[in-house]
Amino acid sequence: MTNTKKLAFASDYQQGAHPDILKRLSEINLQPHAGYGTDEISASAREKIRAACAAPEADVFFLAGGTQTNALIIGACLQSYQGVLAAETGHVSLHEAGAVELGGHKVMTLPQQEGKLSAETVRGAFRTFAEDENRDHMVMPGMVYLSQPTEYGTLYSLKELEEISRVTHAAGALLYVDGARLAYALGCPANDVTLADLARLCDAFYIGGTKCGALFGEAVVFPKKDTVPHFFTIIKQHGALLAKGFVTGLQFDVLFTDGLYEFCGRHAIAVADRIRDALSEKGYAFAIDSPTNQLFLLLDRAQEARLTEKIEMSFWERPDEDHVVMRIATCWATTEEEADALIALL
Amino acid sequence: MTNTKKLAFASDYQQGAHPDILKRLSEINLQPHAGYGTDEISASAREKIRAACAAPEADVFFLAGGTQTNALIIGACLQSYQGVLAAETGHVSLHEAGAVELGGHKVMTLPQQEGKLSAETVRGAFRTFAEDENRDHMVMPGMVYLSQPTEYGTLYSLKELEEISRVTHAAGALLYVDGARLAYALGCPANDVTLADLARLCDAFYIGGTKCGALFGEAVVFPKKDTVPHFFTIIKQHGALLAKGFVTGLQFDVLFTDGLYEFCGRHAIAVADRIRDALSEKGYAFAIDSPTNQLFLLLDRAQEARLTEKIEMSFWERPDEDHVVMRIATCWATTEEEADALIALL
Amino acid sequence: MTNTKKLAFASDYQQGAHPDILKRLSEINLQPHAGYGTDEISASAREKIRAACAAPEADVFFLAGGTQTNALIIGACLQSYQGVLAAETGHVSLHEAGAVELGGHKVMTLPQQEGKLSAETVRGAFRTFAEDENRDHMVMPGMVYLSQPTEYGTLYSLKELEEISRVTHAAGALLYVDGARLAYALGCPANDVTLADLARLCDAFYIGGTKCGALFGEAVVFPKKDTVPHFFTIIKQHGALLAKGFVTGLQFDVLFTDGLYEFCGRHAIAVADRIRDALSEKGYAFAIDSPTNQLFLLLDRAQEARLTEKIEMSFWERPDEDHVVMRIATCWATTEEEADALIALL
Amino acid sequence: MTNTKKLAFASDYQQGAHPDILKRLSEINLQPHAGYGTDEISASAREKIRAACAAPEADVFFLAGGTQTNALIIGACLQSYQGVLAAETGHVSLHEAGAVELGGHKVMTLPQQEGKLSAETVRGAFRTFAEDENRDHMVMPGMVYLSQPTEYGTLYSLKELEEISRVTHAAGALLYVDGARLAYALGCPANDVTLADLARLCDAFYIGGTKCGALFGEAVVFPKKDTVPHFFTIIKQHGALLAKGFVTGLQFDVLFTDGLYEFCGRHAIAVADRIRDALSEKGYAFAIDSPTNQLFLLLDRAQEARLTEKIEMSFWERPDEDHVVMRIATCWATTEEEADALIALL
Fold first, then answer.
1. What are the tens digits of pLDDT across the range A229-273?
2. Are residues A110 and A67 in the same domain?
3. Which domain-ending residue is among D232, D259, D286?
4. Span C69-87, average pLDDT
5. Are residues C324 and C283 both part of a single domain?
6. Nearest residue, CB atoms, D234 vs list B76, B80, B233
């Protein structure tokens, strides 16, 4: 239960939606809309996303949450005898309760560095499979799963993404990018990967709404038309089709109007930067060097006791008896006042 | 695409949420909440639902949509070798794109009358299975699926539900009621089945939000605690767990405050009654005698041409060359003015 | 438990293998063979089957049993959002314990006559789906399942099969024929459908071994090469790949040498014909007019009592209080002496 | 394709069945037997296995192959939200084409030593899960999978197995032992784990037939009655039920008569011992110190070239540019003459 007396930095999904979304929702609330995402607002949102991705032929769908989105895209893109390559720290590997396996596919985990896969690691996995004489008795890697930013807040550079894309496609596999926190990559000065780059390099990706300004919702983008035939029915079959699809469509329509999505990201990054600088100045150590909205503090027992008394953070891991890694997350809703209060407590 | 020039009576999921829900959402929008439904608003909603169901030990969960809810409950309650008995017109049989089968279970269809199963039909299905010498090579019926109101707007009486409950439990199976439109049963004068009756007679049911005043969302009720252990993880594994669970919880918290849920139902029924009376008076025929918010008109070609020009209805079926069945649905959001306008067009 | 004092006519899978198979097995028993069906005997069997089917490019695989074969072929040929059309009396509909649904697909049952689907019924099912405005919320029929002979011992004529093939392919679906008892069609004078016809008209079929002379085993035929890519791995993934694939291959190699497979069928049919004639002569009634190795007797209580005392038959159904339908099955192993003994008891 | 000019030491599943099995099969070949394993021979086999395991109440089932057996037992024992812990070298982890994942469950791989898990590793995995605050978003370990002997030919000692059993049950999970090559453990002087020990310490295990003297077949043992209700139907549903169950039953009836199963194991071990001694004497290196029927040779390029010219072995891995690991396997069918010939070539 959230303790309202503490400063709330535990995650980036604690508040509702950007006020512009609620405002628009109130305006159209009592008007009738066609069902299942066939409405005009959803059509408008799809067009705006296609434009932002420079992918005029893209198929765009709106889903409710990240695990659902990962499971549907991975399941729909893989053949029954294929699995998905992912970092051992990937969200699909660890924190989706086996959703990919429920769909019948193995998550084939690979070693990572600060949450990232290297092109070399990916190439090695494809080569190992291709050269194994028993490969017909094994799960074939059919897709590579990345997250941008990663679960550790790190970013793939454009060059890294281009290499992984090349390696993946050379192996006849598909590249999929989980963008649950994509606004916090797009809004980060260190980032050089645009939506148009993702559309050019990936076979599928999603633009996260839940953690980036929406009440809920993720926008699936298949840059090439008909990448997955009958995806609408697949969504329905998985229980993921909302009757009032206009509610999800509307949120992305607002987020992709006048650059609100990137604005949300830039705000959270600016606040995170201030907090990171203050932490560095006061001598705090970081477990990972993350440029986005998640900061991973390596605290000793004394620091832990002092900070957790006043600040709500997420427990990450305990590397040894004397230390703990805690995560601080900012988001579109974090105020400067909250950042000031946090900094004052350091 | 919704034609805004027509009167919108095509379905009961065309508008957003009851204004009280948006108001409450705006109030708490920027406050921090614990994730995944562990927040205080969701806890409050669960308590109110338990009270309304006179089931203080009930496990209550919030999901996003009806097909998702049906697939999760049916899959979680059945053993791997079991199937679910349902009317051949049941939503799970026809209009969920095979969601139950995706989970590995057969929907075992039974003949119905106006959308309803009889206790005798259900008893016969269990007996036929029990007496078949090949039953170990067959799918065992492990659950009975009903909807209240049914897909045809009809209602099970308390007596009918008690008999089906008895027959089902005598066979060692579970009873599950799909309440996608439950408000329109609860708000109907012809109904004698209360939430407490459902909690007493069923092993699981859901209280529909999407069609009954919410933006989206359904409340799953397992009257007996721990009917399905680890259902939280099952929800997550199926991609059905919303990070911002407080958004769904809040909607049911509002709907179960001061009787709003039943109020929504009563309003829609009163409007439907006015329309039904006007239709009868003007000599229109009904395909089914439904007491709830869905009216099934049997129109000849001339009537069809005249009405569909001005009124948006749902096509249901074409029983012969000269007739069509069209559905008119009212809901919590239908105004008296809209009803007047409709009646004026008849 | 088999009562050895009775005449054994309960089924066509009560004895082991045709003696030629055991003889050949003994000859090669201690020689080393490559694993998983990559051996030379299996290669030879595949060539013989391709020749018998006049399908030189066919992919041929050997599996262990009928339910396994049906589930694998149906699952491998359908897209995730598709189901299979089958007679409501089809083996996949009733007596495979939900194996197709376990794989995630709906068996979409259709009305039948004496176990057979008509082209008109199949065309109607495709048309109904195509014309339904809600079809994107429904299971798409992607395959038609037939059995030859049917579960009732009846046969599709070449003309009927050609029509169903045309209707199915016109709808963009696949045609699959379950040949669990195919020898008893091929060996039946009333039959005009050859293996080459099946290869020409179907997308997949299987040549049953278990009930037609083998210890166990079914030969899957995909007439067009690469109909299902990586089917070998799919077999492995389903646990259906035998390490000693040469044991299955050898059985089909023997059955397809010097016409043994059809010989087994002709023998069983000749014996069944003698029994059928004797039954007719003595005034017994038949529930179904079946020309193959299964006879469905409609017995009154007195006949039932008399016959079941000495003859082991299969219970089929009890159409009313005074009658029962019992099945007599002959097979490749039924001797003339057994037929004589049975006839003497009538 | 097997090259008959080479000595065949590539695997332990290259020959047919122990001659006693073919002899018995020929004797009963033309007698009628009840179907689906309900025959008297299968009943006798089950009784003999119960006696050998000192588990008079055990449920015993016969299946066709190892991957099938693993997938069925693991799937039937786990709850939908659970996964199975296994060594990263386990057969289920690597060489079953994702059969466990096809059933919806994650294989949760753990580090191993010479193919074995330690009790400490297993305890750690359970503890890590139990202590993770996100465990409700993760796959719960519900079973431990071991193989005896392991994929590397090594053996768990009784003490090791007792510890793993204790740790597993303390965590509320089940212990399952894959005995694909169990005869080669039981027949090995270094082994101190009996069938009765397995029945006492495990919740499920299987006695391998395919690699240990049978044509095909594995005997599943659930020491406690009704560990998995309706397992017969689960077998059918997975397409794993053979119509002529007596063929599998008979093989185990013969193998468990007069100690033939252990005799087969002892023979293979004695031959392997002779070969191992000769290899050691001539200075060959071993990659793993395996006491059973699989020998893992670490060969340099010259040795590789010389040996592979005359001896068929299995490629295992290439640890560096200059070396290769090749496997030699003996079995019940390996003759002293073949061993002599092999030794002469070293």
1. 999 999 999 999 999 999 999 999 999 999 999 999 999 999 999
2. yes
3. D259
4. 98
5. yes
6. B80
- Please state, in angstroms and rounded to a whole number, the distance separating the CA atoms of residues C330 and B283: 65
Of D217, D243, D259, at which residue does a domain stop? Answer: D259
Question: Does a structural domain hold residue B1?
Answer: no
Task: State whether B76 and D80 contact (CB < 8 Å).
Answer: yes
Q: Are strands D82-87 and D140-147 parallel, antiparallel or unpaired?
A: parallel
Sign of the CA dihedral with B248 first, then B251, B257, and B263 last:
negative
With 0-12 CB in 10 A as exposed, 13-18 as middle and 19+ as buried, what is C214? buried
Choose the closest CB to B232 out of D75, D136, D237. Answer: D136
Q: Do D29 and C16 touch (CB under 8 A)?
A: yes
Which 8-state DSSP code applies to residue D287? S
Q: Are strands A314-320 and A323-329 parallel, antiparallel or unpaired?
A: antiparallel
Same-domain status, D170 and D26? yes
CB D270 within 8 A of CB D293: no
Contact (CB<8Å) B81/C97: yes
D134 phi, psi to nearest 5 deg: -95, 15
- Tell me the per-residue pLDDT of D101-117, one tens digit each, with 9 for 90 and over: 999 999 999 999 999 99
C311 bridge partner residues: C7
Categorize the per-residue pLDDT at B4 as very low, low, confident or very high, splitting at 50, 70 and 90: low
Chain D: residues touching B (Cβ < 8 Å): 36, 75-76, 79-81, 136-138, 140, 229-230, 232-234, 236-237, 241
**What residues in B contact C131, CB-CB < 8 Å?**
none
Specify the pLDDT at position A4. Answer: 53
CB contact under 8 A, B137 and C101: no
B123 and B215 inside one domain: yes
What are the structure tokens assigned to D335, written together? 């003759």
**What digits encode the pLDDT tens for the residues B198-239?**
999 999 999 999 999 999 999 999 999 999 999 999 999 999
What domain count does chain A have? 2
Give the strand order in the sheet containing A59-63. A59-63, A218-222, A204-208, A174-179, A140-147, A82-87, A107-110
Q: Which of C76, C138, C232 sits opposite A136 (nearest CB)?
A: C232
Contact C79 A230 (CB under 8 A): yes
Q: Give the three-class secondary structure for A141.
A: strand
For B67-92, the DSSP string reads HHHHHHHHHHHS-TTEEEEEETTSHH
Residue D4 has pLDDT above 60, yes or no: no
Same domain for B221 and B268, yes or no, is: no
What is the value of ipTM here, to two decimals?
0.97
Domain for residue D169, yes or no?
yes
Residues B194 and B341 in one domain: no
Query: Between vectors from CA D84 to CA D81 and to CA D90, what angle results, nearest 5°?
Result: 155
Residue D1 lies in a domain: no
Q: How many CB atoms lie within 10 A of CB C38?
A: 16
**Residue D110 burial (10 A CB sphere; 0-12, 13-18, 19+):** buried
Q: What's the distance, Cα to Cα, between the start and end of chain B in Å?
A: 24
The enclosing domain of B43 has a CATH number of 3.40.640.10
DSSP A139: P
Report chain C's mean pLDDT, rounded to a whole number: 96
Q: Which two tokens stand for residue D151?
A: 């994929």
Residue D143 CA to its chain's centroid (Å): 17
Contact criterion met (CB below 8 Å) for C325 and C319: yes
CATH number at residue D322: 3.90.1150.10
User: In this structure, are A139 and A186 located in the same domain?
Assistant: yes
Question: Is residue A24 over pLDDT 90?
Answer: yes
Q: Would you say residue D2 lies in a domain?
A: no
pLDDT at B1 over 50: no
CA distances from residue C203 to B346, C73, C197 in whole angstroms, order as listed: 54, 10, 11
Which DSSP symbol is given to B95?
Answer: S
- Is the pLDDT at B331 greater than 90? The verdict is yes
Q: Positive or negative CA dihedral for C111, C117, C121, C123?
A: positive
Domain extent at residue B37: 19-259
The answer on C290 and C177 residing in a single domain is no
